[in-house]
Amino acid sequence: MLMPAARAQKLLLLTMLALAGGLSAFRLQPTDDGLLPRLARQLDNYLQTARQEKAYLHLDRPVYGTGETIWFSAYVVDAAQHQPDSLSQVLHVDLVSPEKRVVARRTLRLKGGRSSGDLLIADTLAPGTYVLRAYTNWMRNAGDEYVYSRRLSIWPASPIGPQEAAVPNAPTTPAGKARAAAAARPDVQFFPEGGDLIEGLPAVVAFKATDASGRSLSVRGQLLNAQNAVLTAFTSRHAGMGRFGLVPGAGQRYHARVTLPDGSTADYPLPAVQPSGYTLHVLDGGDNFLVEARYRGPAGAAAPGPVQLFTQVRGVVAYPGPRPLVGDIAAAWRMPKKNYPAGIVHFTLFDAAGTPRAERLAFVANEAAGLRVSITPDQPSYGAHAPVQLTVRVANAAGQPVAATLSLGVNDAALGALDPNAETIASNLLLTSDLTGYVESPGYYFRTPSAATAQHLDDLLLTQGWRRFVWKTVLAGQAPALRFGPERELSLVGQVVSEHGQRPIPNSQLTFLQTRPTKNVTTATTGPDGRFAFVGIPVVDTAIISLQARRAQGGSNVLIIPDNGPVTPAQPLPLLPSLATAPPAVAALVRRSRQVQSAELDEHPERAVRNINLANVAVTAKRETVPSDDPRRLYGATGGTVINFANNPGMQTGVNVLQMLQGRVAGLAVSGSPPNMTVQIRNSGTPLFILDGQRVDADVISTLSPSDIESVEVFKGNEAAIFGNSGGAIAIYTKRADPNYNGSNKGPAPGMATVRLPGFYAAREFYSPRYSALLTNPPADPRTSTLYWNPQVRTNAKGEAEVHFFTADGSGTFEAVAEGLGSGGQPVRGSSTFSVKGK
């Protein structure tokens, strides 16, 4: 801790230590009882309570095909010093489709902030741009925009799945076309440095141009005043971003005439000019940040008191003495970069009363403090089925060995070249995890540091927002809102609200019924905000849970809203290009993957049973009340015996759906009473139960009210062949899940909810065969794009680790990539290539 003398022009540095496990209080000089020490204490208290976390996933490769597996290694750290976090012990990983649906999910147990897993990309999914996200429940207290999120291109590699990405339907009405045109209009925004444009004070204005999906657009334009006089011209210099200078005139309003990529022009307004206020300007001066503050007040008003500069990087605080503001003379500071850890510096200008007046973000690289990773293969090239040894070394700038925990993948180098500026653990922990919104090609700013990339990164920070804390909350001494607790065991959380979802229902009585894999019944009461949490749920595979809620005064006219993860941003994802226009490396990936999957289907044809065409099955079906293309139909199955509930008033009564079916379907036998009921079709065993396209247990069906049912289809004998179940199948379709239903019962059932809660996932081991010279005719090796994956690699006392594997059948150039964390929380990454001369 550095404690210099308390002189007005002398820098005072206060270091707030690691947030995980409690902070050490910093020492203050006896005279340090002013504004900035108080701000440091308030920020310290806020961050101690928030204990924010970050998550990062290292993937085996950057692109995938349908039917393939995503292999990943997870890192969860505290947001301040990036040490492996022990607060949360449960990590959720979701794959989200372009339609904003979670199509695959993993729940992982964290040990020391680390875990690993795999996600199968179903061969039934359409190709497109998907989002892979990872989060702990505790992370969501900072806001859903701070969960780990990464866009993935998934190409059509499955031989039996969709071959083209789904294209949204074009609007047909004039109003719909107008809305679509407005949404498709490029977005160009302007951001004055420090926050405001002030009359007569020089300003730097940054801009950013994007399309509807957040991808950058190259633009050029002219700045015009209210009289349409051209003041200056500007051009984006990287990722649709750039800047220009401006001295705002009194009473002026400015707009920009922008030339868009298609050659058209459009006008965009700049923020309004303020008659008085403060500006803050930060300039990169090499080893220092040069900071200037200016003020323009109302005519005749007295000059304000001195201003003070407060800076911090993830809880490491530095501030100099106050500066006066006299006339047009700027207050200036020189802030040494060596006093900060690597990451985003948050500059805040406070007036004499302690009110924040201007803010600015900048970036500290501190390359000298970083770690180096080298990966050395024992040979420059190999043959097919040859042993490979890779030696991984981690060292600091002085060459001294460093302990590190890593993950390592070896894949086709051409795939890595498809997205050379993809996110890395360094770009995530030091940059994107502290920014809101989508950041395009974040690895660009770290891949090859230069003066140009530093300027482009500064443009990004002038345009991308910071929201991990809000000064208003910190200054008021308010604790951060903590809606989610640290999850150490599996839990089910949610909220009970009024039937129209407008207000929370406190003191609601909940009944929790777990039907699989074990039966478990318990009760709980919602809190003042209507929220509930069931913690420590025993789950081995997937639990089927029914929830019932009633008001404290009685009555079930409430809605149970189980928490289904972060809210998905409304911003549309970019469309995937057609395979015909894809880069050669993508075409090769798809070809190799499709060959492997086709060979597997030849050996295991039962895996494609869900694709049986029902036209080849002899069925005797009545007319469906649910359309054949309804998304609730599992495997698209049609042709069962139909019982229409919606148009039969006699079916809207009764206490149990299964009881209502009794005696109405030939061959269907229902016995017992709720909740212990037995169902058989033609004495062939227990049928498969499907609720709105999801397989469920009979216990779940017994909780449904007949008034919520649209129709039921019973599949018997050959009719059920598509499901692969000899006992037949019963498909229940509810009114609320019908996408075309607009009745009063649309939405969740009052007082009821059914939840599928996955248990902790046991990660598979990456297939890595060992070959022997004695094996003269080995089987075909299924490894194509990813040759090797190891999610847990630790260096020894020499800072080294060795990994061993064999090459496969294919040839080409392969790239080994290692990512991870040094013992001090420093993100590390290294790569190397070698060639394989296959069969």
Automatic annotation (TrEMBL):
<feature type="domain" description="TonB-dependent receptor plug">
    <location>
        <begin position="652"/>
        <end position="727"/>
    </location>
</feature>
<dbReference type="InterPro" id="IPR037066">
    <property type="entry name" value="Plug_dom_sf"/>
</dbReference>
<dbReference type="InterPro" id="IPR012910">
    <property type="entry name" value="Plug_dom"/>
</dbReference>
<dbReference type="Pfam" id="PF07715">
    <property type="entry name" value="Plug"/>
</dbReference>
<protein>
    <recommendedName>
        <fullName>TonB-dependent receptor plug domain-containing protein</fullName>
    </recommendedName>
</protein>
<feature type="signal peptide">
    <location>
        <begin position="1"/>
        <end position="20"/>
    </location>
</feature>
<keyword id="KW-0732">Signal</keyword>
